[in-house]
Write a sequence for this structure.
C-alpha cells in the first residue's frame, strides 16, 4: 500500500470518530481545546490499537470477526446513542448544571464502538503486504486530528442547538450504527 492510499484509508477510518466527537463537543458547555485534545487522544489511541487487534485476529480467525463486528458496533452505538437521547430528554425537563467534561469510560466506549470498522480493516490488512504498525499509526493520527477538530466544531454547534445537542449527538451515534449495518448488508 502506498503513502496516498494509507492517508486516504486513515482519514476514511476517522470519519465515524469525527461525527461522534462533534456530537460530544456539542453536548458540552464551551469545551476547551484541552478537552478536545483529550478526546482526540482517547479516540486516536483506540483507533491505533483496533487495526492491530484486527490484524492479529485476521491471522487467527478472520471469518468470525468479519461475521460479527458489524453487530457489535451496531449494538454499542445504539446503546450509547439511546442513552444520550434519554439523557438529553431528561436534561431538557430539568435544567441541570451544564456538562464540562465527558467521563473517561464513556469516551473509551464510544471510541471502541466507532473503531470496530478499523478492526475489520485490520483483519483485511492481515492478508496484504502492508506495514501494519505504520498503517495503524496513520489511522490513529488521523483520528486524533479529526476527533479534536470534531469536538471544536461541536463547540460552535452546541450553543445553536441548546439542550437538543445531546439528543442530536445520540441520533448521530445511532445513525452511525445503522450505517454500519446498512453497508454490511448492502455490500
Amino acid at each position: 500500500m502506498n503513502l496516498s492510499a494509507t492517508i486516504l484509508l486513515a482519514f476514511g477510518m476517522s470519519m465515524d470518530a469525527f461525527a461522534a466527537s462533534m456530537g460530544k463537543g456539542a453536548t458540552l458547555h464551551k469545551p476547551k481545546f484541552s478537552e478536545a485534545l483529550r478526546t482526540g487522544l482517547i479516540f486516536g489511541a483506540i483507533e491505533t490499537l483496533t487495526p492491530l487487534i484486527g490484524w492479529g485476529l485476521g491471522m487467527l480467525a478472520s471469518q468470525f470477526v468479519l461475521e460479527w463486528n458489524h453487530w457489535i458496533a451496531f449494538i454499542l452505538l445504539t446503546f450509547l446513542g439511546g442513552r444520550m437521547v434519554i439523557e438529553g430528554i431528561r436534561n431538557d425537563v430539568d435544567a441541570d448544571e451544564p456538562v464540562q467534561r465527558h467521563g473517561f469510560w464513556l469516551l473509551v466506549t464510544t471510541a471502541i464502538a466507532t473503531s470496530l470498522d478499523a478492526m475489520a480493516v485490520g483483519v483485511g490488512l492481515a492478508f496484504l503486504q502492508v506495514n501494519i504498525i505504520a498503517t495503524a499509526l496513520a489511522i490513529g493520527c488521523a483520528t486524533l486530528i479529526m476527533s479534536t477538530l470534531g469536538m471544536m466544531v461541536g463547540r460552535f454547534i452546541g450553543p445553536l442547538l441548546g439542550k437538543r445537542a445531546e439528543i442530536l449527538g445520540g441520533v448521530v451515534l445511532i445513525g452511525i450504527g445503522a450505517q454500519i449495518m446498512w453497508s454490511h448488508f448492502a455490500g
User: Anything to note?
Assistant: The CA atoms of residues 138 and 158 lie 30 Å apart.
